[in-house]
Amino acid sequence: MKTVNQKAWFFVLPVLALVAFNALIPLMTVVNYSVQETFGDNLFFWQGLDWFEQLLRSDRFHAALGRQFLFTGMILAIEVPLGIAIALAMPRKGFWVPVFLVIMALPMLIPWNVIGAMWNIFTLPGIGLLGYLMNETLGIPYNMTQDPVAAWITVVVMDVWHWTSLVVLLCYAGLVSIPDAYYQAARIDGASSWKVFRYIQLPKMRTVLTIAILLRFMDSFNIYTEPFVLTGGGPGNSTTLLSIDLVKIALGQFDLGPAAAMSLIYFAITLLVSWLFYTLMTREQAK
Amino acid sequence: MAKITLSRLRHSYLPDPKGPEDYALKEIDLDWQDGGAYALLGPSGCGKTTLLNIISGLVIPSEGRILFDDVDVTELPTDKRNIAQVFQFPVIYDTMTVYDNLAFPLRNRGRDEATVRRRVTAIAEMLEVTELLGTRAANLSPDNKQKISLGRGLVREDVNVVMFDEPLTVIDPHLKWKLRSKLKELHHRVNATMIYVTHDQTEALTFADQVVVMDLGLIVQIGSPVELFERPAHTFVGHFIGSPGMNVLPCELRDGAAFFGDTRIELEGPVTREGKRTEIGIRPEFVSLAEDGLPAKVRKVSDLGRYNVLEAMAGETRIAAVIEGEVPGQGETVHLAFRRDHTRLYADGWLASEAVRG
């Protein structure tokens, strides 16, 4: 006869407690807020799905969401090809390998708010290296605190500077795992360098590239610190991405209900896109 | 198809080689006849892969020349040499189908689709992979992947040479047999020069008509499997080929005769060279038990089914003998006789006796 030992549940308890405290309970609090109105003093009024309805019809949310997709789309379109190109150009063996790896890893080691502050100073028109160079030396008007286009370019370039390394390092890991025999066989088969890339390097990078794109999507979609420190969402609302807007609603206006509803929708979008992308990529691979 | 000539080839992986020990290849002179089946046999690190890569153009030799049909190709890049190589681990293009894999070398050289179809179909049939042509190459078993790598080498009709770099390493033992005989059969059908690199004597001896034995960057002997077995040119070949390997007994030369200790050993014929270190070489297959001969104490008897391998100690020297029928027990003292026409002298490692003519 099979006996079931219920004591096993005790082993699961620590994990359950941990997950409850760092994920389940906070998330449930947000769910709780999202269906109620509160004015503080622990007074809550039932609101149903009103916040969700309001949010989905709000122009402000649509605008922030649009900016968010534009930002994520732009940085992916730049970082992925650029990352692959840099990884291909990096040396595979010899003295320079560790040097390049460290240089590549540096931007990722800097605290995020420091990166925002660095780029803020870097681009200041009067004193920043880039700002001074553009305005005074080259005579190109460039002021990201006043011009939305300049602000956008700066935010995107900053993210490319900060995160292309991640794509590079992951792709590089995929590239160095290719045995020499593959390149030798391709030479014997008379393959051009484009075909070597298309049929040997790209397929071998595919798994790591999927991870890289997924990570870059999630991180850039949830980006907050760097643009907040750099532009504060301005000029106007031009660089107010979703998370910046969310914090404005939650902490600036103290509208906890709408902010909670927005968090949940935000979370759902991130999850949905990530799942879709991952499923499509892995299904293609399994074929 | 072409005759391949290696002339005074030397190679070092160091930028500034000093002594002979810095060379992976020390002076190689060799002709590979058109259409031959060759094996390059030697222990790991003997330079056989270097030699192979020099022929395929993946490595440019430090010194010496390579000729294909008397045309110098030493500096020619791999894709211009028209050679094929199969590597230790199967190389296949994962995202392509088996058909596209086989067609790849032809399409890269701009052949029209009709030719491609004809060649791919023919090769697939030869390798018995016709029913796999439509499947994605990534899903194949290792032996089928290796067959596809091989097929990509054979698909071009005009290759100068097909080279195999230990191609059966990752194949299951029971499939090794099948693939090995397949290779032999393919050689008869396509008639290309084939060079098979391996450290496995069975693979080399079953595949090749001519075996090139290498050690420490040098060619030690070139010969048919029978020649290598019967007349090893060097004690290394004697050790390396045959199982168990050749017995090597230190000996002294006195008045033109060889003495092991105080026992006079009759050689096959006259001594041709003398050296600092002289040894007698005799294969265990030609050592037998006798009423009177070299006394030795039996140390171990291994029953290999059809015959027994007896290991006996004559003083400090171990002598193996292949014995059919009754074997003495461990610890007994026996007398060993050597078949005279297979008892050879080696001076400083190299063969130093010759057979009596007639």
Q: How would you summarize the topology of this molecule?
A:
The complex is a heterodimer of chains A (287) and B (358).
Chain A: H1 8-34, E1 36-38, E2 44-46, H2 50-57, H3 59-89, H4 96-109, H5 112-123, H6 129-137, H7 148-176, H8 180-188, H9 193-221, H10 225-230, H11 242-252, H12 256-286
Helix pairs in contact in A: 1-12, 2-12, 3-7, 3-9, 4-7, 7-9, 9-12, 11-12
Chain B: E1 4-11, E2 25-32, E3 37-41, H1 48-56, E4 63-68, E5 71-72, H2 78-81, E6 84-86, H3 98-108, H4 113-127, H5 142-154, E7 161-165, H6 173-190, E8 193-198, H7 201-207, E9 210-215, E10 218-223, H8 225-230, H9 235-240, E11 247-250, E12 252-254, E13 257-260, E14 263-265, E15 278-282, E16 287-303, E17 308-314, E18 317-323, E19 333-338, E20 344-347, E21 350-351
Parallel strand pairs in B: 3-8, 3-9, 6-7, 7-8
Antiparallel strand pairs in B: 1-2, 1-4, 4-5, 9-10, 11-15, 12-13, 13-14, 15-20, 16-17, 16-19, 17-18, 20-21
Describe the model:
The complex is a heterodimer of chains A (about 290) and B (about 350). Chain A has one domain (about 55-285): MetI-like (MetI-like fold, Orthogonal Bundle), CATH 1.10.3720.10. Helix content of chain A is about 75%, strand content about 0%. Chain A has helices at about 10-35, 50-55, 60-90, 95-110, 110-125, 130-135, 150-175, 180-190, 195-220, 225-230, 240-250, 255-285; strands spanning about 35-40, 45. The two termini of chain A are about 45 Å apart. With about 350 residues, chain B is α+β, with helices and mostly antiparallel strands. Chain B has 2 domains: about 5-230, Rossmann fold, CATH 3.40.50.300; about 245-350, Nucleic acid-binding proteins (OB fold (Dihydrolipoamide Acetyltransferase, E2P)). Chain B is about 25% helix and about 35% strand. Chain B contains 9 helices and 21 strands. Chain B has helices at about 50-55, 80, 100-110, 115-125, 140-155, 175-190, 200-205, 225-230, 235-240, and strands at about 5-10, 25-30, 35-40, 65-70, 70, 85, 160-165, 195-200, 210-215, 220-225, 245-250, 250-255, 255-260, 265, 280, 285-305, 310-315, 315-325, 335-340, 345, 350. Chain B is elongated and about 75 Å long. Chain B starts with a strand and ends in a 7-residue tail after the last strand. The interface between A and B is medium-sized, with 17 and 24 residues.
